[in-house]
Amino acid sequence: MQNNHKFHALINGELVSGTQQMPVINPSNEEFLTYCPQATPEDVERAIGAARKAWPAWRDAPMEQRRQTLHAIADCIEENAEELQRWITLEQGKPLAGAAVETSQAPAILRYFAEMDLSPRTLQDDERQRAELHRRPLGVVAAIVPWNFPLVMACYKLGPALIAGNTCLIKPSPTTPLATLRLGEMIADLVPPGVVNILPDGGDVGPLLTGHGGINKVSFTGSTATGRAVMRSAADSLQRLTLELGGNDAAIVLDDVDVDAVAPQLFALAFVNSGQVCMSIKRLYIQSGIYDRMCDALAEQARDAKLGEGLDPETQYGPVQNRQQFEAVQKLLEQAPQHGRVIAGGNTYGPGYFVEPTLIRDIEEGNPLVDEEIFGPVRSLLRFDDIDEAIARANNSPYGLGGSVWTQDLTLGKQIACRLESGSAWVNQHFAMAPHIPFGGHKQSGIGVEFAEAGLHEYTAIQSVVIAK
Ligand code: NAD
Prior knowledge:
Belongs to the aldehyde dehydrogenase family. InterPro entries: Ald_DH/histidinol_DH, Ald_DH_C, Ald_DH_CS_GLU, Ald_DH_N, Aldehyde_DH_dom, LUC3-like. This is Aldehyde dehydrogenase family protein. Keywords: Oxidoreductase. It holds the Pfam family Aldedh. Helix content is about 40%, strand content about 25%. It is α/β, with parallel strands linked by helices. It folds into two domains: about 10-245 and about 445-469, Aldehyde Dehydrogenase, Chain A, domain 1 (3-Layer(aba) Sandwich), CATH 3.40.605.10; about 250-435, 3-Layer(aba) Sandwich (Aldehyde Dehydrogenase, Chain A, domain 2). The chain has a seven-stranded mixed beta sheet, sandwiched between helices. A six-stranded mixed beta sheet has the order 9-8-7-10-11-24, sandwiched between helices. Strand 10 (about 215-220), helix 8 (about 225-235) and strand 11 form a beta-alpha-beta unit. Helix 3 crosses helix 4 (about 95-115), helix 4 runs parallel beside helix 5 (about 150-165) and helix 9 (about 260-270) packs across helix 10. The longest helix is centred in the N-terminal third of the chain and has 20 residues, at about 40-60. The structure holds nicotinamide-adenine-dinucleotide. Nicotinamide-adenine-dinucleotide binds near residues 174, 222, 246, 247 and 401. The site of nicotinamide-adenine-dinucleotide (NAD) has 28 residues, from helix 7 and helix 8.
């Protein structure tokens, strides 16, 4: 595979080179990687028209055909995993091992949804009437994807959208379009024209989709600020929405844990994907009895972490994905010494958007390093004495995506987990996702869920069919 591959958008089953091209940058060295098509407003209209036209036949296609299509897309990802991993690493910056997680989870989620059952449920059947609950597809779904897990997140949305009988437009993030475009090129002949369309953009296509009367549902993953804009523009045509938004997850670490055993797990779950995960640990609440020892053990992990270019097999942590995000993290880092003590990292360097894994201890709430979502490798270590106090502080956030409790007492751990105001609550783990377990945000972390039957149902509308006897 060469970097000079010519990328195409997928519109109405055709591979389109596009009238406009845009550059994609490698975040590991800030060098130009390649050009790819940049969708124009005319491309958007064409894709929406194609998806609308394809919808009735796809909606009415036998379930078996839709199942086979999803398995065929999954096969295609598996067969081309190595190439896709390389594009993910080049455009996103993550190590190849992280890209391999995407190319293994993406087919797994497609296969999971391929086997879901959407047959009608009988609600009543007596001498008076027969009542059935049917789940109908919504129509055309716009899947809007962020830059932290470009391929797997596109597939989170593609799987349930297609199996439920919807057609789909996928809009990758402007800074990570390549793996998704390659997927489009690979599957162009596997899906009927118009059923899947892929529209790379320079940042202007999202609002065109969310305000469009031809789109029935928007499945959006991204920041809370953009989620609000999506919700506002969806109002006019009452588009159905799933919003997976930002998070500021707390981990509450009780002083009965084995510090040496738990510190590497906490570190990995805070810094995975260089801290650019909605559901990674962002605030660590550590009980006083182990606070100093845990801070030291985490700092040692940070010092041992190997940063670098993702194609280097030694690399554990890549750069921040783009300049805008890099500058946002730099700005927050500058404030760190005012609010706490930096015990590891604290520096940024280039070329590339590298930020050392940074830990700040003796820090409290009331500043952006703790109160805001940091989408980069900077984490706060907060001390607490009393468990009720820790729960209150963890919950005192507009976000409510995930949260975890770390303790050897599983009964107590579960009691605390159940008091967290978050869509996912874990004990002795974090960011533990699986296709059969729904996830979503409470409060300003989102609306609706993805994964599992509940996630599939978000791509359907209920129709009650009631027959008098
Ligand atoms: P972002 O909100 O800037 O962009 C996300 C996507 O929305 C991109 O494709 C972008 O082009 C598009 N977009 C931008 N403005 C739009 C608009 N007005 N209308 C429609 N679409 C628009 O987010 P990002 O910087 O790419 O990703 C980071 C954020 O995503 C973080 O806040 C993170 O927590 C969140 N995130 C959440 C989850 C989750 O499942 N809850 C998962 C991953 C990332």
